[in-house]
Design goal:
With 443 residues, the protein is of the alpha/beta class. 39% of the residues lie in helices and 17% in strands. The longest helix is centred in the first third of the chain and has 28 residues. The radius of gyration is 22 Å and the shape is globular.
């Protein structure tokens, strides 16, 4: 039986309504599927759902009060991913697949438990000083040396060893870094557009992947920062804090986001198409899934991502290129949940008919996703605010409409459609969330 290669390309933070650049994929044999729903409004729980087929409350890797993304969640994610054998990644690796994780997002790194791979590449997603994989590797090596020995001792080491290549690289990176930061401060250069896709493209163009393979890619060009003012992410985090905890939106941030996000989305879709073209030699023998893990709010219901359960944050693009021997299946339900991805992969790997589509899709949030540095601000907030923010919410999509339900308070915060049917369906779903059968419910 033929074993197809499997590629998942995640365009981080790409809204469905800003994804028209992906139409170029039709020329490469891709099929677009409608109404794809992300299971979470931010990266980590959404990616875990994508590879495990479980919703966040089922796999347990999500935000919560006292569980900070830069502290406790690292350990939690590592433990849970190990227990779950890394979902479909572990399954395919056990079946003899080579596995590759190539990501510009540090959430998809060993730091958060993504350790099941034959080879990985984590580029980071702030502005970059290099445009090739070789330069990236040199920079990583230099960074470690400088961290251990300092700038002067590192330079003296190269001089002593007559390693002029690395000495020249070090000088080049040092000067370019200073010039780039100065140009950004002066407003004559925007270093926020390119966030690692060039390195990923260069890496994949040089790499011969060992077949059959599983390749998980994450590119960050649609993700912030969207302005040089936000290179340290403080503009984003402060705006997010005020929107979530105080209920206020910054007019300045909304203006910047609405002005700059479209340009980043266009760049991201172009980068995604370039990556697929680099992988063209594998396409006939591969199942290729292109999707976003979540969108981005631009003042339409909030700002940034995480916490909010709004359509513009949860509706994501989904394109699939099927192996040459598979007839592209039709969508059988009004929605597609990203938790279906592992079952689609299993079906193709087992030469079975995949089910693409569900009658019910849900998304979950559990509170703020701010890093631990903001914990001191929580002590100044009323307890009612903390209870409101750190509540388990579920947004339910059905053919009868859409509803957002606060599980902790047992109340509906938003209902659009057939109220009676939505309430009935939502309460049924809550009872199923401790099982693995949510996607099989017929409503």
């Amino acid at each position: 039986m033929r074993k197809p290669n499997v590629v998942i390309l995640v365009i981080d933070t790409l809204r469905e309504d800003y994804s028209s650049g992906l139409e170029a994929l039709r020329e490469l044999g891709f099929v677009k599927y409608e109404n794809a729903i992300a299971p979470a409004p931010w990266t980590l729980p959404s990616h875990v759902s994508l590879i495990t087929g479980l919703y966040p409350s089922q796999h347990g890797i999500h935000e919560a009060y006292g569980v900070y993304v830069d502290r406790e969640l690292r350990k939690l994610s590592t433990q849970r991913l190990s227990t779950l054998n890394h979902g479909i990644i572990g399954e395919l690796m056990d079946e003899g697949y080579s596995t590759y994780i190539v990501s510009a997002n540090p959430f998809l790194s060993p730091l958060f438990g993504f350790t099941k791979f034959t080879e990985n590449l984590i580029t980071g997603y702030t502005y970059v000083l290099f445009r090739s994989y070789e330069e990236y590797k040199d920079h990583e090596e230099l960074s470690l040396m400088v961290k251990d020995h300092g700038y002067i001792d590192t330079a003296l080491k190269f001089i002593k060893e007559r390693n002029l290549r690395m000495l020249n690289k070090a000088i080049k990176f040092f000067i370019k870094g200073r010039v780039t930061r100065l140009a950004a401060k002066l407003g004559v250069y925007d270093p926020t557009m390119e966030k690692g896709s060039h390195i990923i493209i260069d890496f994949l163009s040089r790499k011969k992947l060992s077949e059959p393979f599983f390749l998980l890619i994450n590119i960050m060009e649609a993700h912030g920062p969207y302005t040089p003012k936000d290179l340290d992410e403080q503009l984003s985090f402060n705006a997010y804090f005020n929107a979530v905890f105080i209920g206020k939106l910054s007019d300045e941030v909304v203006r910047i986001w609405q002005s700059n996000y479209p340009k980043h989305a266009i760049y991201a879709t172009k980068s995604a198409v370039k990556i697929i073209k680099v992988l063209r030699r594998y396409l006939d023998d591969s199942l290729v899934i292109i999707v976003a893990d979540h969108g981005e709010l631009l003042g339409d219901g909030g700002i940034f991502h995480g916490y909010f359960l709004k359509d513009k944050l949860l509706r994501v693009p989904l394109w699939i290129k099927w192996p040459s021997w598979v007839k592209p299946p039709r969508q059988v339900g009004p929605f597609i949940s990203l938790v279906q991805v592992p079952s689609i992969i299993r079906a193709i790997a087992n030469n079975e008919e995949p089910r693409v589509g569900v009658n019910v899709a849900i998304a979950e949030s559990f509170g703020s996703t701010l890093p631990s540095a903001f914990s001191k601000w929580y002590s100044e907030l009323p307890s009612e605010t903390l209870i409101r923010v750190f509540a388990h919410r579920v947004r339910v999509y059905t053919r009868h409409g859409v509803a957002t339900y606060n599980v902790n308070l047992d109340e509906f915060e938003e209902v659009s459609g057939d109220v009676g049917e939505l309430m009935k369906t939502t309460r049924t779903l809550i009872n199923y969330l401790d099982s693995s059968e949510v996607t099989s419910i017929e409503v």
